[in-house]
Design brief:
Layout: E1 9-10, H1 11-34, H2 45-68, H3 79-93, H4 96-113, E2 121-122, H5 124-141, H6 150-162, H7 168-189, H8 191-196, H9 201-218, H10 227-236, H11 252-262, E3 268-275, H12 278-291, E4 292-300, E5 303-310, H13 313-323, E6 325-333, E7 352-360, H14 363-371, E8 374-378, H15 387-397, E9 399-405, H16 412-424, E10 428-431, H17 437-445, H18 453-465, E11 468-474, E12 479-481, E13 484-486, E14 491-495, E15 498-503, H19 506-518, E16 524-530, H20 537-548, E17 553-560, E18 566-570
Parallel strand pairs: 7-8, 7-9, 9-10, 16-17
Antiparallel strand pairs: 1-2, 3-5, 3-6, 4-5, 11-14, 11-18, 12-13, 14-15, 16-18
């Protein structure tokens, strides 16, 4: 369906842009991955940019869904709300060096777009300011900016936009042309690109995002110029001779980058979200800068995304602990990936026959699932994983056959989309529609990777289906439920997704839920305690089971920050 061009930059334009950018990066992902040689030739820049924008688009859609679910007449979200959602979604979903920088670019734009809370839209002049702030913010977030990268492309886009006049469409076109010209010149600025005969992968991704911005405001996609066209753009922009591999002039930054590459570079990429104040982050930057390179710290208002390449991954995480509370910690060992080996020194890693990929709602269960052999995807409260994140986890499992456990009814469609994508890559994927982490635990308990795939899936599906699940949560607003009207602050006991008990005490409500579940029988009760569960609730429930239900065993796990106060499974 053709897009309706947006005259001004309003909330709907933000939504349209995110959707178009996601589609553009989806089409270009493999191409961008293939030309990824800097700062590390790990072949994932396109994928990382796609996942970052997917997270941004999901956050914006959630804002629109919230408004559409309100009372009639439906009011669209404000520009500020949509821009904030875009920036926050990109921040929490940012992947890799380029994805982290893109998140800061979007955050810089949001700072301008959301400056006036009551404004419904902005014009071409506002878009110019947003692009300028984006480029400046991204450059400031990188510890040691290097020319010939996405930073150069972003700055050129902002410069070109600043020299143009007109509506948002005219400004977007100028920014896109400036970005294309800068992208064409990147091999002349960064020696590693010149030797490989490619343009910068991160910059290529940004050009795709800016092309989507043009389409948002004009209804027409400018497309992506070919290499010969890029060369002509570079010459027209006064940036030297057309692009030729191996004929690049080296900037000072490029020379230092080449030296790092020839030396092999750090062994690990470390990424995490961090809750910390500005002063602590300032100290963290200094600490991490001394530990490694490719340091990018983006964010603000107490939430940051930290990316760095180091030899001592533990020290990088410890620095985050000293600064605040790190989570969603991701550590990648470069040497373990084929893309990081040189001269064919390491043969391709053999795929395992079968693996389990599971979405886990809290840090406490990650260890349990990992010990059971699963590859995990952490889903924090209010931050469900996108389909691209699940696809990446399936790839990370590096197996011919994968059993996927979403562990959340709301993730069913997301997981189905991820499974379909993985199947197109030749991976056999079975989706078991687990609706709670306790059903996933039951499925993992009967998992046997040595038996036939279909038999294993049937056994795991049967175990999950035979496990009733419940959760105890606190109501955030007055609402109608299956058990009556609840007020904000009431304790709710949900059985199989429906409110069954409304109370004021956590332990008493949990007992009521447990009695309802065990009335139909059961042999094993699984309790998963959240961080905010009151002391003694597990002991009280264990005592209740011992006294009232003979021959029923109880097992207790600590779930960490999982959203619910308590998860209960009965099988």
């Amino acid at each position: 369906m053709a897009q309706v061009p947006q005259t001004f930059f309003d909330a709907l334009a933000v939504r349209t842009w995110c959707g178009l950018a996601l589609s553009a990066l989806g089409r270009a992902r493999e191409e961008i991955d293939a030309i990824n040689v800097y700062p590390v030739a790990d072949g994932d820049t396109g994928t990382n940019l796609y996942l970052t924008v997917e997270s941004a688009a999901t956050a914006v859609e959630a804002v629109f869904a919230g408004h559409e679910a309100g009372s009639a007449p439906v009011q669209p979200p404000s520009l500020a709300d949509a821009a904030h959602a875009m920036a926050h979604g990109a921040l929490i979903g940012a992947r890799g060096n380029s994805g982290t920088i893109l998140a800061q670019l979007l955050r810089g734009m949001a700072q301008v777009l959301a400056a006036e809370r009551e404004a419904t839209h902005t014009d071409g002049a506002g878009l110019c300011l947003a692009l300028r702030q984006a480029a400046d913010a991204a450059r400031q977030a990188v510890a040691h900016p290097v020319e010939g990268t996405v930073l150069t492309v972003a700055s050129a886009a902002a410069d070109a936009a600043g020299g143009a006049e007109g509506d948002c469409g005219a400004i977007a076109r100028a920014a896109h042309r400036g970005a294309c010209a800068a992208l064409a010149a990147t091999p002349e600025q960064l020696a590693v690109l010149g030797r490989a005969g490619v343009v910068d992968a991160g910059g290529r991704g940004l050009v795709a995002v800016l092309a989507a911005l043009v389409e948002t405001f004009t209804g027409e996609s400018p497309g992506m110029p070919g290499l010969s066209e890029l060369s002509g753009l570079a010459g027209a922009a006064g940036r030297g001779e057309p692009v030729r591999a191996g004929n690049a002039e080296r900037s000072q930054g490029a020379e230092s980058a080449e030296g790092a590459e020839s030396a092999g570079g750090p062994a690990f990429e470390v990424i995490y979200l961090l809750e910390a104040d500005d002063a602590a982050v300032g100290r963290l930057r200094q600490r991490l800068d001394g530990l490694g390179d490719s340091l990018v710290v983006v964010g603000g208002d107490g939430l940051w995304n930290v990316h760095v390449h180091v030899d001592d991954a533990g020290a990088a995480v410890e620095a985050g602990v000293e600064a605040g509370r790190p989570y969603r910690i991701r550590i990648t060992h470069f040497g373990a990936d084929d893309a990081h080996t040189r001269g064919g020194e390491r043969p391709p890693r053999e795929r395992v026959q079968r693996a389990v990929v599971a979405v886990v709602p809290g840090e406490g269960l990650v260890g349990l699932y990992t010990e059971a052999g699963a590859t995990t995807v952490l889903a924090r409260p209010g931050e469900p994983p996108a389909s691209g994140e699940l696809v990446e986890a399936v790839r990370r499992a590096h197996a011919r056959e994968v059993v996927l456990l979403p562990n959340d009814a709301d993730l069913r469609h997301t997981a189905a989309a991820a499974a379909e994508q993985a199947r197109t890559e030749g991976i056999r994927v079975a989706l078991i529609p687990t609706r709670s982490a306790v059903q996933g635990i039951a499925a993992l308990a009967v998992h046997e990777p040595d038996r036939r795939f279909d038999e294993d899936v049937v056994s795991m599906t049967s175990a999950a289906g035979a496990t009733r699940y419940a959760e105890v949560v606190v109501a955030v607003r007055e609402s109608w439920t299956m058990a009556g009207i609840c007020q904000a602050g009431d304790v709710l006991g949900l059985v199989d997704g429906d409110v069954a008990v409304i109370g004021s005490d956590v332990a008493a409500t949990a007992e009521g839920v447990l009695d309802r579940m065990l009335a139909a029988g059961g042999e094993l009760v699984t309790l998963v305690l959240g961080d905010e569960a009151p002391e003694g609730v597990a002991e009280r429930l264990e005592s209740r089971v011992r006294e009232a239900y003979l021959a029923v065993d109880t097992v207790v796990y600590r779930g960490g920050r999982q959203g619910a106060l308590l998860l209960i499974g009965v099988e």
